[in-house]
Amino acid sequence: xPASVPIALFALAGFSTGAGMRMLDPLLPLVAxxxxxxxxxxxxxxxxxxLPYGLVQLFAGPLGDRLGKVRIACCAVLLFGLGLLASxxxxxxxxxxxxxxWCGFFAGAVIPLLMAHVADSVPYAERQVxxxxxxxxxxxxxxxxxxxxxxLAQYAGWRMPFLVLGLLTLGIGGLLARHLxxxxxxxxxxxxxxxxxxxxxxxxxxPSGRWLMAVAFADGFLLFGGAFxxxxxxxxxxxxxxxAEAGLVVAGFGLGAFAYTRAARHLLRxxxxxGLLTLGxxxxAVLLTVLALAPAWPVVAAAQVVxxxxxxxxxxxxxxLATEALPEARGTAVGAFALALFLGQxxxxxxxGLGLTVVGYRGxxxxxxxxxxxxxxxxxRGARVA
Length: 386
Description:
18 helices, mainly alpha, MFS_trans_sf, transmembrane helix, transmembrane, single chain, globular
């Protein structure tokens, strides 16, 4: 792997931003109690993070292409860490919401820009494997953020997770800056550095670019915002599990995702990109059907682990293809992919919620299964294989 790609540090940066997104899962009741608001009102803290996280993609990609992807990502990590520390010291609810928006804005710039730098530095044949190693940080955040923050809050109050993660994030940002040294300030602005926001038009003029954005939107609609976020409530409302049990079951998804990061090289060599799209997509459709028909919660628990593996088999190929959608402005291309995913996620959560009122959890999971099967077939047909 090229020396210009400190993949372990990149993974740690991914861990910090992923943990920053998921850390509030067990903390909302405690925060609501301290500031005298309801848990429903406290969800503004979640929206306050997620909306800027998605919308910053419009600007982060072109800015990274112009000024240097790692330079902007490193600065974003440090500013994100400062926002976390300030959140732990917040004295009012409105101020905490504003600080969550600050954190979401800077966290959203990190993953796409670091992934684009990986693509600039690693040949395509090795890129998906390298990206899978980079994503280990995000996967571990999904597994650990909720439980660790819950334990810290239980013994030291809800502010402690913000302070601990803030210090960790600043340390990671400092290590990244030190490792890169002069290269950080020299930047890695590329051939498309002068195009700015116009690079989005370049991307959309290409049939492959339009196809990739559409597939990313559907991916977010059916999975990120559709089926996945509702598995916990499915366990609680249909199978009578409590919140802690549901959280542990859902964490099984991260185990499957971690298995993918370890097996990516073998899977890619064995099946190729088209094969992973087909197997991953078909596996997702089958497993969502299993959820819809599950007679007991242990079936859901087992399915969650395999869902994590199948999802990253499918999604990992799309992420790698995004790095080649506009090679002269990769920051913009990966940012556009992330933005399309976010917009699909937002629409999918509304659509799935509406589906619950019409056909219930089982019917909504079946509908998602059919949609994912169609998406997998479409993705296989449209994928460009290197």
